[in-house]
Amino acid sequence: MESIIVRGGARLQGRVTISGAKNAVLPIIAACLLAEGECRLEDTPRLADVDTMCGVVSELGMRVFPGEGSLTIINEGIKGIEPPYEFVRRMRASFLVLGPLLARTGRVKIALPGGCAIGARPIDLHLKGLAALGAEIEVKNGWVEARARRLQGAQIYLDFPSVGATENIMMAAALAQGVTTIENAAGEPEIVDLANFINAMGGRVTGAGTRVIKIEGVKELHGTTHAVIPDRIEAGTFMVAAAATGGDVLIENVIPTHLKAVMAKLTEAGAILIEENGGLRVRSELPLKAVDIKTMPYPGFPTDMQAQFMALLTVARGTSVITETVFENRFMHVHELKRMGAKIVIEGHCAVVKGTEKITGAAVKATDLRAGAALVIAGLIAEGETEISCIHHIHRGYENLVEKFQGLGADICYR
Ligand SMILES: CC(=O)N[C@H]1[C@@H](OP(=O)(O)OP(=O)(O)OC[C@H]2O[C@@H](n3ccc(=O)[nH]c3=O)[C@H](O)[C@@H]2O)O[C@H](CO)[C@@H](O)[C@@H]1O
Ligand SMILES: C=C(OP(=O)(O)O)C(=O)O
């Protein structure tokens, strides 16, 4: 399975069921470090990133039992304070064990996660937040070393509503002495899912989903059972694919309120979206219309949907301006889309997409996870054959992507 081959032209039709959210389950697995006992996670997706996070917590002493759409994590005490570099290097979200490990053991050594294809992605806000809770933090030779006796609640203001920083601080504060307030906190649905999980473990988190989160520290937490929310980015990817191919698809296991910005832009582009039979039906007649997009923290348009929407806009009527405000380098897919005949010019943080009548199949490379998804969508609307390489990026965050598209009538397979 080295590449994905797509032959364009099919109008997607039928139903597709969305898996559990990657960006919710990863911090929740990290949060299992917070409590001794057994946590059962349901509706978990089978993804490379989930395997990596399970590998990280296993190295720290957790026993992980994968089931059919579930994970059972048994915590009989933390047995390590140094998540292996190999895991942290492979997946940035591994850094989310810092907060819970620090709260439980008072000592952590973890590699700096470093940048990736979409930007430099510093972790200064994570560290500032944990320092405010009383941790002593030293960064040297590519490692972060953190120590604390018992963390103390504090008032923390984030310069930017960082998802990861909010999560790391929230997990650490759950076991701190006293009350922590995070102002300008991230409000993504995955933050709410993590807060619900912590509360189910006996924690006291309020305000998740708003810009101010309050965490009353408790002495200890306990195991629990939790069902992970559906993946709004996977849902959005299928919605965009359905609209881009002039299709008619019922998306099942989706929470439409998590997708308001994506729905608004699809509607503006001319697609018809209806909540129906407990799902979300997306249909469209081609061509769609150009629309401008600006990525923003939730509830704004998600940066994780920018590449996929750009693929749709390559063949829309008119010119669209896509502004990326969350990551400074998230336009790697532009070069690949241009290889397929897309007319796109990058001007600073903007990509100007001039809709063309058709794009054509080509050999292209997935430079990151969502770039890979965008190239699959581009392949579905292109004339001829598209071969997408470096598909390990896609396996990080999409469960059975090829099989799900096949189920909607797409001509797509592995080679
Ligand atoms: C596993 C996971 O949930 N990943 C998501 C999470 O990533 P992640 O949690 O890494 O994203 P953040 O919200 O932290 O990053 C947003 C912006 O803040 C900057 N920043 C962040 C932390 C920090 O300490 N200093 C700093 O400057 C980043 O470089 C970036 O420019 O949210 C992103 C933004 O919605 C999504 O694209 C990712 O899919
Ligand atoms: C950027 C993403 O993930 P991560 O933060 O894990 O790199 C993503 O899911 O699109």
UniProtKB/TrEMBL annotation:
InterPro entries: Enolpyruvate_Tfrase_dom (IPR001986), Enolpyruvate_Tfrase_sf (IPR036968), MurA_subfamily (IPR050068), RNA3'P_cycl/enolpyr_Trfase_a/b (IPR013792), UDP_GlcNAc_COvinyl_MurA (IPR005750). It is found in: Cytoplasm. Keywords: Cell cycle, Cell division, Cell shape, Cell wall biogenesis/degradation, Cytoplasm, Peptidoglycan synthesis, Pyruvate, Transferase. Pfam families: EPSP_synthase (PF00275). One of its GO terms (cellular component) is cytoplasm. Its main location: cytoplasm. CDD domains: UdpNAET. The modification 2-(S-cysteinyl)pyruvic acid O-phosphothioketal is found at residue 116. It is an enzyme of class 2 (transferase). One of its GO terms (biological process) is regulation of cell shape. Residues 6-404 form the Enolpyruvate transferase domain. UDP-N-acetyl-alpha-D-glucosamine binds at residues 92, 121-125, 304, 326. Its EC number is 2.5.1.7. The active site is at residue 116. GO terms for molecular function: UDP-N-acetylglucosamine 1-carboxyvinyltransferase activity. It comes from the Bacteria. It catalyses: phosphoenolpyruvate + UDP-N-acetyl-alpha-D-glucosamine = UDP-N-acetyl-3-O-(1-carboxyvinyl)-alpha-D-glucosamine + phosphate. The keyword Metal-binding does not apply. Pathway: Cell wall biogenesis; peptidoglycan biosynthesis. Phosphoenolpyruvate binds at residues 22-23. Belongs to the EPSP synthase family. MurA subfamily. Cell wall formation. Adds enolpyruvyl to UDP-N-acetylglucosamine. This is UDP-N-acetylglucosamine 1-carboxyvinyltransferase. The gene is murA.
